[in-house]
Amino acid sequence: MIASGSPAVELSGLTKDFALGLRGVRLRAVDNLSLAIAPGEIFGLLGPNGSGKSTTIKVILGLLRPTTGVCRVFGVSSEQVEARLAVGYLPEAPHFYRFLSGRELVTFYGRICGLQGATLAARVVEVITWVGLAEAADRRVGTYSKGMLQRIGLAQALVHDPQLVILDEPTAGVDPIGAAAITELIRELKARGKTVLITSHLLAQIEEVCDRVAILDKGRLLACGTVAALSAEGKNSSDTLNAAEQAELAQWLVARGKTAAALGGPSARLDQIFIERVERNRQQTEERAP
Amino acid sequence: MNTVPFSLRRVGLIAGVTLREALRQKLLHALVLIAAGLVLGVRGLRDFNFGISELKFIADFGDGAIAGFGAALTIALTAQLFFSEIEHRTALTLLAKPVWRTEFLLGKFLGVAVVAVAFCGLLTATLVGVLGQRQLALQVDQPEAWAAAHAVNFGALWVSAYLHALKLALLAAGTLLVASFAQTQIFAVMAGGAGFVICHLQGLAQAAYERNAASLMSVPATLIHWMFPDFQRFVLPADGTWTWSGLAQVSVYAGVYAAVALALAVRSFREREV
Lengths: 290, 274
Prior knowledge:
heterodimer, A: 290 residues, alpha/beta, six-stranded mixed sheet, four-stranded antiparallel sheet, 9 helices, globular, B: 274 residues, mainly alpha, 0% strand
């Protein structure tokens, strides 16, 4: 049962260790991670390879058990099967049963989620059309391109109309046109009131669609907030304009028939923030190391 | 309160997709073709009959082909279908849905079990056809030499097929137990093969050590006797006699061992990090 008023995802002191070999050596993939994702929010989880993003997602999906800490999905412990009723998941570089057609695949996952009869048939048509695969729905999944696999993956993730959609690198290996289409689908999910947790290496994409982002490195949370807030944190006061300078600049723009948009994006883009935070963390880790 | 109860419907769906995947495996096609080819071509080998009657030789040879190829097929298919889910990460997508790991494993088991049953049925039907045709030919060609006592017991052939199917289902459960904790497919296949040999020989070893109770080996032999099912119980006596109560006993025996193996597999798979 989904608890009303609960965060879509709530991680509290989450730590996940993996045993390496038989000598008791352990790798800490996630280190005391705490964050909450509100319902209806698009939340970006960023981090370099090996930062703990996928492990965090697997814990949220109940595929891994936390070593310590708690993970709840709409107030239900992620270790319970019940928590997955409200979750749709698109894995990174998804593989599906290649011998099924797109329609059969989505129907299979719909049935697994308890849909049946006319409801299932209508829902399958709806999600397949929504992801733009109506014409290829009866082709075998084994013949699909990477972009089509991502789309059919999105369709299977959405077939049971989940409240939380987890997208792990949804645009990995997809061409820019396909990536733009997927970005548009994510925006539509937001418009439908869904909560979306997304990881991506395409920081521009994250910046474009996410309400908030968290940056992870070596399992630790380095930063969490809106892109604007993180961007502001990174600025020095000497880099910013005071009120008089801003007024002067506005006058200068108006005189030339332009608006502030002509100045381009924010002075600190997400990719800059990301690189700066990760490098700083690594420097500090090296300094702390004996 | 738990709102996602265990569902036989989901087990059936997973079994269905497992079966469809199994039917596409080239290994399955190859083993079925070789086994069927051996049964169909057994008349060409009748010179190696070691003095037994031709029909008895054909029946024994066919039975051996079903047992041997059935075991190889079951072990390889169980390991392959389980590990393909893990390695291709289709298990990730499936287990991220409201699916119990018990349902996943039972679905895999049932999918393989259906293939094993179909294999035994198909090969036995082929064997019945070959034997029936040869028996008819012998009756027509050598009416004087033909003795009714040599007539094929077709009922026993189907009972034997049932026992083979039970044994293969048990073997699938055992292989799934190994696969649930094994890191590689080859390990699961090797362990499944070793298990098959142990299950066939442990009854004989136990009987031998029982005759010599003082032997140190009697303790591990007894342990193995309880841990592994005795596959000799699934073999019909040479005269082909069988009883319904005997069949029921063997069915319960297989059911208990399969249930224990599957329960342990579920326990192990729950701890596995997918």
